[in-house]
Amino acid sequence: MPGFFVENFGCRAARADGEAVRDRLLARLQCVTQPSEADVVVVNTCSVTAEADRAARAFIRKTNRQNPTAKIVVTGCYAQRAPEELATMAGVAAVVGNSHKALAPEIIQSLAARQTPTTSSEARAIVSVSALLSGNQAPVWVDDRFALSFLEEAQLVPGSQTRPNLKVQEGCGNRCTFCVIPQTRGSSRSLSRAAILKQVEGFVAAGGNELVLSGINLGRWGRDLTAPSKLHALVREILGRTTLPRLRLSSIEPMDWDADLIGLMSEFGGTRLARHAHLPLQSGSDSVLRRMHRRYRPWHYAEKVAALFRAAGQALTLGADVMVGFPGETDHEFQETVAMVQALPYGYLHLFPFSPRPGTAGWALHAQAPVPSDVVDERMAILRTLAAQKTESHRRRLIGQELEAITLHTPQALATLQRTAALTENFVPVELAATLPANQLVRVRATGLAADGSLEALPLTAEKIQ
């Protein structure tokens, strides 16, 4: 049986795409553990930054050097944004943009069987005239309609991922000046309520304990359906109609945390709904947010955070994305971001330097008013220090408390110390002083901080202790 390998880059939603492709391939192909062993290597790319593009190209080149006979299939956001750039790389056998991701398993299976990629769909590969003349470009499946883009996962089960992502929403209708996502994933589209409930029920029947609801712009789920709905209604239905022990929400834009969704945190937070909220901030400066075309102001953001903590309590873990060096960012504007981060009770931050993306308004803004790279580096260092302090402070407040957690697949180095990796309900990594199998719900008491900053804890109850 031919072997395949999938390498994922990017966000939770992108990983969900990669896992869905993997699951669809398992019926006919063998999943191998190394790209050097594969007949087909699937590279599921991100393109949110120039660094993401660079990392994908580096992986493709390395794979081709180590396994020159492998057929490389490139998909994801980079494949959608710049398909011909990837199609000319050595070893690349096909480029499948997000617009055609639903066809990716069929194309990959054809390549694994050493056949010319064909599909039963009306979609056809696009090959440029220059490629036909040169004969050195892989076929490309990309367009701007995104009619074949929603790749529903095969039935999710707790396996290699104890806490799998169920992607229920695709694309984004926002037009932030720095973001290439509307170009690479199209407008917002929602998975049906019936399909979602079927997935959740099947996951529970397979013994699943925690499921992560994800999307490119998750808070907009349901707005495009024939019978429009909202995310809070979906969450309530999942909790009301299934016995899923724990549901976690991935990143949700600040303005989409409406009163009904926040109310669910008060009703279910800490029991069946994880007390964890990731609200992208990007900047704490009103003027920068306006240049970014973000749909909230700093005070709106602070009000949402306050409402979430009132609903979920102080054990809530708050996370955010913060961008540094947006075009024209002054020292004063950066200090406004620092002040806001200092003022809010963050449990962690994801920090990014601004990266100009071709085709976005931010590309032109960067050409007009770039922030010098040394200034960006200095500002990143300041925020990294502040973020580390915030994370440590949040976790130290949990020492001595009892928390709910789920055990994960433990790395061998940790297992040899007779410890188990886990994640608390409020999204804090834990080292348990016991040996437990993955996918077990356990109540723990936090006793201190480990060298890597995770919580050290003792298990109090568990489904099974080995």
Key attributes of the depicted protein:
single chain; about 475 residues; alpha/beta; Rossmann fold; Transcription Regulator spoIIAA; 4 domains; globular
Structure notes:
The chain has 466 residues and is α/β, with parallel strands linked by helices. It folds into four domains: 139 residues, 3-Layer(aba) Sandwich (Rossmann fold); 120 residues, Transcription Regulator spoIIAA, CATH 3.30.750; 122 residues, Transcription Regulator spoIIAA (2-Layer Sandwich), CATH 3.30.750.200; 61 residues, Nucleic acid-binding proteins (OB fold (Dihydrolipoamide Acetyltransferase, E2P), Beta Barrel), CATH 2.40.50.140. Helices cover 36% and strands 21% of the residues. The chain contains 16 helices and 18 strands. Strand 17 and strand 18 form a beta hairpin. Helix 1 crosses helix 5, helix 8 runs parallel beside helix 9 and helix 10 packs parallel to helix 12.
Spell out the blueprint of helices and strands:
Blueprint lengths: L2 E6 L3 H14 L4 E2 L8 E6 L4 H17 L4 E6 H5 L1 H5 L4 E6 L6 H9 L16 H6 L5 E2 L23 E6 L10 H5 L3 E2 L2 H13 L4 E6 L15 H11 L4 E4 L9 H10 L7 E3 L7 H7 L5 H15 L4 E8 L6 H13 L2 E8 L7 H8 L4 H24 L5 E6 L4 H4 L4 E5 L4 E4 L8 E9 L5 E8 L4
Parallel strand pairs: 1-2, 1-3, 3-4, 4-5, 5-6, 7-9, 9-10, 11-12, 12-13, 16-18
Antiparallel strand pairs: 7-8, 14-15, 14-17, 15-16, 17-18
